[in-house]
Write a structure and sequence with these properties.
Largest sheet: none
Helix content: over 70%
Shape: elongated
Number of strands: 0
Number of helices: 29
Length: 655
């Protein structure tokens, strides 16, 4: 979904990234099995223990030996062998304790966890339903192990987009644990965190935050302010703040989590790279691309030194690094890491896993950014088929991918196909997520833009009128993502020659960006450049010049800003200078802008025409008529190409 502002008359369409970002629901099993790195001989020892247990009587020792080896193999991602051992353990438990005893429920829960890890959600649900039936017959509702099964079943529902059912079960698990272990127990904190995850996914931020605050308070009281158990709670708070555009608070929560994690011996070694990845995502939103890249590379280095080169957690980091590169137009670097992530996930999970679908989507977004639309469509199509197979045709991730396909068709100028995909996406997401959801906001905005590009201004106006109040309610009026939509609306109004309304929208958007400390983000830069264009239209040349000069200064201080962004700012200031008769100042700006634009691929014909026109006017007004005529002829050639080629899609990138 698009969430990057575009430039009026400077049509840059950024790729949409479906980042495989944590957090995932925190699950509590009946028998917690924290996985630590084991010595090289651990497998031999575990197999010897199993062999010893098998040679004796059929008793609990055999069940434990089978479980221990299965746990080890599961951590090593040898899922087929782990499944065989878990099933053997279940069979042994049923013979020892009976097929309907609580011990069998424990084994069923372990098997379900393995299936969920592999994306086999239907099988996981069946095992958990069976385990729950056993528990209800043997120990009843008010037993902590029943709470654990209910919690894990809720997590399966959440993974398959059944949020209402997940919320009901997470609340049930919370009630069970509050009664059985007390309201201040860490298990209650787990239930609160999982319930908050569902509320966050449904953009019920005001409901999610107090749940996480209470969970954090429970853990701090029970285990101390520096205990490793706080890490995931702080991580979930950080990502909740990020979703709301509260980036400073997100950074504080994630930095605290990282500090605790770095000090915690024996904690889950996959958590630190996950935390670093989430911090990088915050910095990416703020436009701090260099810091985001360094942080992701640190996560990558940790994972490559601690795990084998095909670890799925490493693939998650590579995927996010590729998404970062794509957002900056660094397509070569992006392709290398995204392809590596895809290979890891395909080797580890098989070709039809949800993580493979994410990698395919991100490579599709890369191809879309390169203008290789046919390849993008093929990749999105493969991803869509996997999501429909894993989750069903009505899952929100299916709607999200249909939206991405719509963006691809829109970028190709296939507006009818784009609109059809947007409407299908909207129907799915409104049914599954509800009408007041950030994904719905994104799709409606895309519809508004697509209608505008088709020249159906009345329909576009209606979509914008619907989405703006909805976005303000769902995202919050100080959220930078709401500012993106305002900036888009401002650009749309400008292109309809409603410059007063355009100025109002853009000024408000710029104010929000400044308040949220996003002045170094690409979206802020595009917003001030768009506002500069409006000022030029309204003959406010001094105000326009100030904004374009600010954009140039910020881009000059950025080591990773795309070259075209600089060309756009240079061209804008050149036009402002020409209109103020500052010809000496305008000429080097024109030369510098043209030096970038003439090397760009695909060519930005619109900006070439504008910049050549400005430079020709400088030459005419300084008595260099012959040179001016040469530039005017070149501008006419580009203008003819501009009329014959579809231009990139206008609009903000919604995510």
């Amino acid at each position: 979904m698009r969430f990057n502002c575009f430039l009026v008359l400077i049509s840059l369409a950024s790729g949409s990234i479906a980042s495989a970002q944590m957090p995932l629901p925190l699950e509590k099993e009946n028998t917690p099995t924290q996985v630590y790195r084991l010595p090289d001989r651990s497998e031999d020892i575990l197999r010897q223990a199993l062999q010893s247990a098998e040679s004796g009587n059929l008793d609990a020792r055999l069940v434990a030996a089978l479980d221990n080896l299965a746990d080890f193999l599961c951590a090593r991602r040898d899922y087929a062998e782990a499944e065989r051992l878990y099933l053997s353990s279940l069979s042994a438990a049923e013979k020892i304790y009976g097929g309907e005893g609580p011990e069998a429920a424990v084994q069923l829960t372990k098997i379900a966890a393995l299936f969920k890890k592999q994306g086999r959600f239907s099988e996981a649900e069946d095992r958990l339903q069976h385990a729950l039936t056993i528990n209800m017959k043997t120990v009843g509702e008010e037993d902590s192990s029943t709470g654990a099964i209910v919690n894990n079943l809720a997590a399966v529902y959440d993974s398959t987009g059944r949020h209402a059912e997940a919320e009901t079960l997470f609340r049930r698990a919370l009630t069970i644990w509050e009664k059985t272990v007390g309201p201040e127990h860490p298990d209650v904190a787990t239930a609160l965190e999982n319930l908050a995850t569902v509320e966050k996914e449904d953009t019920k931020y005001s409901d999610a935050e107090p749940l996480l605050d209470r969970a954090l308070a429970i853990r701090e009281k029970a285990e101390g302010p520096e205990n490793a158990s706080l890490v995931k709670t702080l991580n979930n708070l950080g990502t909740l703040y990020e979703d709301q555009g509260r980036y400073a608070e997100a950074e504080r929560a994630l930095h605290r989590a990282i500090g605790i994690q770095e000090k915690s011996a024996g904690s889950n070694e996959s958590d630190l790279p996950m935390l670093l990845g989430n911090l990088a995502c915050v910095w990416k939103e703020e436009g701090r691309y260099a810091e985001a890249e360094l942080t992701l590379k640190r996560a990558q280095a940790i994972q490559e030194s601690a795990h084998d080169p095909k670890d799925p957690y490493l693939a998650n980091t590579l995927n996010n690094l590729g998404a970062l590169y794509t957002s900056q137009g660094k397509y070569t670097e992006s392709e290398a890491v995204l392809q590596r992530a895809l290979n890891i996930w395909e080797d580890d999970f098989g070709p039809d896993h949800k993580m493979v679908a994410i990698a395919l989507s991100n490579i599709g977004a890369l191809r879309k950014g390169q203008g290789r639309f046919s390849e993008a469509e093929t990749l999105f199509g493969r991803s869509l088929a996997i999501r429909q197979k894993v989750f069903g045709a009505e899952h929100p991730t299916v709607g999200i991918l249909l939206n991405e396909l719509g963006e691809t068709y829109e970028a190709e100028g296939k507006y009818k196909q784009a609109e059809d995909h947007y409407l299908r996406a909207l129907a799915i997401c409104e049914r599954t997520l509800g009408p007041e959801n950030r994904t719905v906001v994104a799709i409606l905005t895309n519809l508004a833009i697509a209608k505008f590009e088709e020249g159906e201004y009345a329909a576009s106006e209606l979509h914008f009128q619907r989405v703006l109040p909805l976005a303000e309610k769902v995202l919050g009026q100080e959220n930078p993502k709401f500012a993106f939509i305002l900036a888009s609306r401002g650009a749309e109004q400008y292109l309809q020659h409603k410059s007063s309304s355009a100025e109002s929208c853009l000024r408000r958007a710029v104010a929000i960006f400044k308040k949220s400390a996003q002045v170094n983000s690409i979206n802020y830069l595009r917003a001030i450049e768009n506002l500069g264009q409006v000022y030029l239209e309204r003959h406010k040349y001094e105000e326009a010049g100030v904004l374009f000069a600010e954009a140039i200064a910020r881009l000059d201080n950025s080591s990773d800003a795309p070259d075209l962004e600089m060309a756009h700012a240079l061209g804008g200031l050149a036009v402002a200078d020409v209109l103020r008769a500052y010809y000496a100042e305008a000429e080097p700006l024109c030369k510098r802008a043209l030096g970038i634009l003439e090397k760009s691929s695909p060519p930005d014909y619109t900006r070439l025409v504008i910049t050549l026109g400005a430079y020709a006017r400088v030459l005419r007004n300084t008595n260099r008529i012959a040179q001016a005529e040469i530039l005017e002829t070149r501008a006419m050639v580009y203008k003819a190409k501009l009329k014959s080629k579809p231009q990139p899609a206008l609009g903000p990138d919604l995510n």
